[in-house]
Structure formats: structure tokens, C-alpha cells
Amino acid sequence: MIRALILTHRWLSIPLGPLFVLWFATGIVIHYVPFPAQTESKRFAGLAPLDLATPLHGPAEALAARGIDRPGRIRLWQRVDGPVYVISTADRSVAVHADTLATADVANPDLALSVARTTAQRRGIDATGAAVAALDTYDQWTVPNRFDAHRPLYRIALNDGDGTELYVSSRTGEVVLDTTRFERSWNYAGSVVHWIYPTLLRKDWAAWDVTVWWLSLAAVIAAVTGALLGPIRLRLSKARLTSRYRGWHLWHHWAGLLCAQFVLTWIVSGWLSMDHGRLFATGRLTASEEEVLIGEPDWTGLAATALAAVRGEAREIEWFAFGGRIHQRARRALSQQQISVLDGSAPRIIGRLLQPADVNAVTGRLRSDCARSIDVEPGDDHPFASDVPDAPVYRVVCGDTWYHVDAASGAVLDKLDPSRRVYRWLYQALHTLDFPTLLAYPALRTLIIVGLSTLGLAFSMTGMVIGWRRLRVLSIALRRKG
């Protein structure tokens, strides 16, 4: 049994040793420089005020023009070539000119360049030297699945001091991502290596998922066998515990005993990041839950008169279904908005946010044991936050299942059943130390993460040296035998 553990640990650790070193080193980088993503504040800062003085067709006419009867959400925004409806469905995003109902795809690179320049200027970035760099289906920063509805993407280099690049959707004309030279450079030494994220592999999600899952599982086995061998290979000599090893093996043995718990929980939780529904729930709504929480309202009645209900300047108008009724969300600033219910009569203004009573009225139809909604407070064991500053996220507890609804957008952010709650602790909490107590003290959390990762890095380097030496010995032996 011990011999099997030794052989398994040895021959898995030799090829995986360099990967452990890279994982710990790049984990430190990721903590300081996350993977590029466009925040809601940046997106909204690039929006221009809507021109509602021009006669526009209604959202229902835009849906009919593209043959869509069940949209997810509809948004109206002011593009450089006029107001445009963006219709989002489960698997795509399409754009329609609000004044002509013509397709609003971006086939002209000059239009993409104009959108990028205008957006950059509104964000306070110098875009005088901007130029279209490429039209790509995939590149290193747009491989995540959330960009599938927008491919291919125009990459616009602003040629400013920060080396900013904007990505413009060819489907909707929106800026969907921004990166800087600093982010790109450090992410090659961070997320790209840590997640095994080269474009060639990651653009095929299924191949990437299987590859990283099996590599991570092999790493788990290597870590588990090492953790089991650590105490076993100790011996009692003159009333004290000593190691059976010398040299690099000795350093590796004692370092392993010191950080075994951290390495084991970290690698197992990293493997669970690739779970994707294999062992734990995904948090997706069932068809019956969607029927209650979202519903199937009559979108055909959403005429242009809905726009008349918007008072004052708006930079974006959004329509979404919640509880089987269409809601209109007029946004003037990131935190300034007005939500109204459109139910065939005059719009009923709810206020800036969905109210608890509105959410309770809908979620109460899910199950008979649903409690009244409560706000998810900072420091909660299961933290959720809205993209809108100071907007609450409502938690509704229905038996052993929790639903989280964004008061600003009506989006159901997640469904936490017992399996999903366990996953939160085994993955998020253990892998990123996402514990409420530590989140309240970010400097302490950073110190612990960097300290433990450095310890894991040093430990892994001792294993890599041992593996390299063993390969050299094996190579010499094979040459002599040959």
C-alpha cells in the first residue's frame, strides 16, 4: 500500500511539479491583476443621452422585424448612427435601428471605430489616434463564453498612453470589453497560465473543460497521496519525530508537512472550479421556476407609447419580464433610474428599484413555504451585489432553496439549494479565502493569500527539483543500458 502511494505520488508529481509552481506563482498575480472585464460603471459611462425627440418605432415592432417572440431583455441606447434596440435572447444578441427597423449589425469597420472613439471620449480617454486593429472571432481576452453573442469582435487600439484597446460587437455595436497594456501584460503571467487559458485551447470550451478537469484531478491525486505519505514517512528517533529523507527530499518532506492542509484544500477547491454541474448544482432555474419568476408576457403590446412615459433625459431604456409582466427601466445615471410596470394600462411607477412587496408577490407563487424577502447585507456568508451602487439584492428563502433577485434590474442572480451552498464554501471560500470575516479586512486577506501562496510556491519548487533530478538519473541509466 505504501509502495503504491509512493509510486503514484512520484510519477504524478514529476510532470505536474512545474504546473504546481506556476499555479502558486500566477495565483499571486491574479490576486492583484484580475482577468480583463468591463465593469458596469465603465459601460454606462460610455453611453450618450437618448434622442427621444425623433419619432421611433416601439420595441414590439423591433421584435417583429427580427422575428423574435420571446426576448430575454430589450435595451434602447444611442449609438453614433442613431437610437438602436438591442434584443437579447438565450443564445444571441441582435440590433435594430429604432427609427427605420433596419438591421443594425456593424459590418463597417469605420462605424466600429466611430463607436469606440465616442465611447472613449465619454470615458475621458484620448482617442484621437484610435485605429481598427483587427476583426477577430476569438483572441486571448475574448475567449470567455459571454462574448459568443457578439462575435466577431472589432478590436480598436486607442493608441493612448495606457495602450487601451476596446472591443466592439459586430452584432450590436456596443463596446463589450476594454483592456490596457498593463492588464494584458500581467495576465499573461497570471490568469492565462493559471487557468490554462491559451486561445487555441480555450476557444473550444468542451476541450478546455475536459483538459483542465483531468489535469486538476491528477493534481488532486498527487496532493492527496503526498498528504498521506507525509506523516507515514516520519519516524521516532530518541523520543522525537524525524524524517527518513535527506537533502532536497528532507526540505520537501518538512515543507509538505507544514503546508499540506493549505495545498490540499487549495488544489481540491481549484479542481472544483471546473465542476460545471458534475458533482454540484449549477444554480440555473428550472423551466417551472422561470415560468413563475420571469413568465411569458405579451411583448406584442409594447408599443412606442411606452417611450412617452420616460420623463427627462435617459441614457438607456431597458425592458425585462419579471413575474409575467413587462417592466420598463429608464436609466439616467449609473445610480439614477426609474422602474415602471407596463401591464396594458397606464405605466405604474414602482420607483428607483423593485420593492420587496413586488418581489414577494412573485416569489410567493413558487412554493407555499417562501418567506418574505430580505436584503443581502455586506458580510453575509453568501454575498451578492448589484451592478448598481447601493441597490439591494433580495434573498427569498423557499424551504431549503434561496433565490437572489437584483432590485435594480429584476435579474435572478442565482439559486442556492443545499448543494450550491456547499459548493460556495468548498470552492469560493477555500480557493480565494472568500470568507466574510476576511473580506471585511482586505489587507489581512491579501497578506494571508500572498503568504500561503509563497509558501506553496517554495514547497512546489522543492518537488520540481526532486523530479528533475530523478529524471536525470533515469536518463543516465537508460543511456547506459542502451
Strand count: 17
Distance between the termini: 32 Å
Average pLDDT, rounded to a whole number, is 93
Helix content: 40-55%
**Strand order, largest beta sheet:** 3-2-1-10-11-12-13
- Percent strand equals 15-25%
Uncertain stretches of 5 or more adjacent residues: none
Determine the structural class based on helices, strands and strand pairing: alpha+beta
How would you sum up this structure, described in words?
A hairpin with a 2-residue loop joins strand 11 and strand 12. This protein has 482 residues and is of the alpha+beta class. The model has no long low-confidence stretch (mean pLDDT 93). The protein is globular. Among the domains are: 1-33 and 190-280 and 431-482; 40-187, no CATH class. Helix 1 (2-32) packs across helix 15 (442-481) and helix 8 (205-232) packs across helix 9. The strands form 4 sheets. It has a 7-stranded antiparallel sheet, covered by helices on one side. The chain has a 4-stranded antiparallel sheet with strand order 4-5-6-7. The protein has helices at residues 2-32, 40-45, 59-66, 109-122, 181-188, 191-194, 199-202, 205-232, 247-272, 287-293, 305-308, 356-363, 418-432, 436-439, 442-481, and strands at residues 73-79, 82-88, 93-97, 131-136, 153-157, 165-169, 175-179, 234-237, 240-243, 316-322, 325-333, 336-342, 348-351, 374-375, 393-398, 401-406, 412-416. Keywords: Membrane, Transmembrane, Transmembrane helix. InterPro entries: PepSY-ass_TM. This is PepSY domain-containing protein.
